[in-house]
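Please describe the entry underneath.
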Amino acid sequence: MYASREDIGYDFGEDSKVGSKPSKPNPNIDGGWAWMIVLSSFFVHILIMGSQMALGILNMEWLEEFNQSRGLTAWVSSLSMGITLIVGPFIGLFISMCGCRTTAIIGGVLNALGWILSAYASNVHYLFLTFGLTAGIGSGMVYLPAVVMVGQYFQKRRALAQGLSTTGTGFGTFLMTALLKYLCTEFGWRNAMFIQGAISLNLCVCGALMRPLSPKDLREKYVVRSDSEENRAKALSHSTETIKSNGVLGEEPEKKEEAANEEVLGSVQHAEIGGKSGSGRSMYGLRLFKTVSQLTVTVRKGFALWYSSYFGAASLFTNRVFVAFIIWALFAYSSFVIPFIHLPEIVKQYNLSRQDNVFPLTSIIAIVHIFGKVILGIISDLPCISTWNVFLMANFTLVTCILTLPLMQTYVGLAVVCALIGFSSGYFSLMPVVTEDLVGTKHLANAYGIIICANGISALFGPPFAGWIYDITQKYDFSFYIAGLLYMVGIIFLLIQPCIQKKHPREKSTEEAQV
């Protein structure tokens, strides 16, 4: 049994007791408005992740415009991708205090502003600030809420729902590659970025669709694990129990702080009732004081939960498999990002531009990526299949493709490898599911924020590293080999930790005795 899945942004009360049954199921869970959340997340992935995966087009324009080295120019794309993910833990704090909807709308405005300001860039360093930093932070403020909201609205078909929503990355890469190529050809790259900024304002609409579950719905939201979920959790159950045995992220301090907050609000309300006979100015002052007090309580609750998740006595980092998951994320994402940034340049070196113009290799990755996410999501939801095993197999396939890609120098060979990269990278739709199985839904926003932060670090240094290696060797081969080997190290960490947990079963009883 899972504990009740509480919305980190809207309810900070106690978890309901496990085993009880809701009197009336919420029709919006696994249905109704839940599919609007999937649609919203789908368009977020199109506008954010799709645009970022199509930055190879703009990267070539920047190389010609500013005449800088490939390593320095690649920092623009990698900053945007990296910061989008690196700010994840801090966006978790925003979600805790403001909620997913408000966070996403603010992020949409900031992202559009970054694109528009970048149209006036006079050098690469200007793009670091406008496109890398401003647009990157805005993207992060929309991306994390889009993932978290899908997890909150789905119980039985989480993998499928996440798979459908994240297919927007594939659609977006295909659409945005064609759109940016057309806009750069017809209007120039500056006007293309200005138009893209206007399009990005649609992220505010996506954020507005992220309607929060009401506190009543959250209290009545319970999850009864099906047999498929039990099978999926076998590889992760020991580490999950370790977190739970520690009293998930310090419930006692939360109870004490909640009591103190209720006492503050109660005193304010009592003062408001006692002052009804007073003047209108006094009533206005009391209402203002009450509003400020409520805002202060909300901020304190949000910060307390955010802080305890990362630095509390029973923080997320006490989960060994979750720590191994973070180490894997530090190496994995760059192997997926590097081809998108540098494939257009590789195609040009191999004199394959004519074939690539007919059907770009990045578009092949994007299209097959769509099917990979949906198919892997469906497979993971089968009763006899473990999500963890599907996740590992997809990772092994992807790292093999990364190591093989430099050996292919024909369009057909590159197309086949790119198709395999697209399909195996569909495991990204399983990352929220695996994370949720490790830490529970209540801490999904903070935990997934840490994971995408690690991915962001990987994306931040991957493309510039590949460009730097090219500047030295005049080849991209070593970039893919080194990235693939580092990726393999991350996968080994994922394999080692569950084995260590099984070899030391006494650790759980020791931790329970300490509690």
